[in-house]
Amino acid sequence: MDDIDHLMSVMEDAFDPAFGEAWTRRQIEDALVIGNCHYLLIAPEGRIILPGAAERHDCPEIAGFALSRQGYDEEELLLFAVRSKYRRLGYGRRMLDAVFSQARKHGSKRMLLEMREGNPAGLLYVSCGFEAIGERRDYYRTRDGNRLNGITFARELEGDS
Questions:
Q1: Mean pLDDT over the full length of the chain
Q2: Which of 41, 109, 113, 130 is positioned for an S-S bond with 49, CB 3.0–4.6 A?
């Protein structure tokens, strides 16, 4: 199983299909080809795994992942997921800390993300220092045709240790 297989497996478990938020394998592959996208994985025991290392560390299952894109002095969190059985164990916070660290190494001063209004992950983001900075009215469309607002969040990275 390669890293993208792991990402796809986590998304299948973590993302509610009613919202259509999961990416296709092709979307992930295309994002990674561009060169400014980065990802990391988290193992079931909570260890952060950097790209290409999952097979070498004998991880038949991955607990979660984060995919981000670096642009000039900002990093955007594109996808973030934790398998349902590993939620509320600190894995999300540990992955965000690792993403913040990687973003600073890439020269980013700020982290951005966008999520649908009502997404329970918003509680984690706020607890990790993100603040809502904007709203996109009716931005997301559910599988049944309902429209949901998108909320843009930002977190400064300068001064973090």
A1: 91
A2: 41
Q: Which residue from 52, 31, 33, 30 is spatially nearest to 41, judged by alpha carbons?
A: 52
CA 27 to chain centre: 14
DSSP the chain: --HHHHHHHHHHHHS-GGGT-PPPHHHHHHHHHHSSEEEEEE-TTS-EE-TT-TTTTT-SS--EEEEEEEETTEEEEEEEEE-GGGTTTTHHHHHHHHHHHHHHHTT-SEEEEEEETT-THHHHHHHTT-EEEEEEEEEEE-TTS-EEEEEEEEEE-TT--
The helix-helix angle for 3-14 and 25-34 (nearest 10°) equals 130
Of all residues in the chain, the percent with pLDDT exceeding 70 is 94
**Whether pTM exceeds 0.85:** yes
Per-position DSSP letters for 98-116, written without gaps between them = HHHHHHHHTT-SEEEEEEE
> Could you tell me if 151 and 125 are in contact, meaning their C-beta atoms sit under 8 angstroms apart?
no
DSSP helix/strand/coil, 130: coil
Cβ neighbours of residue 121 closer than 8 Å, sequence gap 6 or more: 80, 92, 115
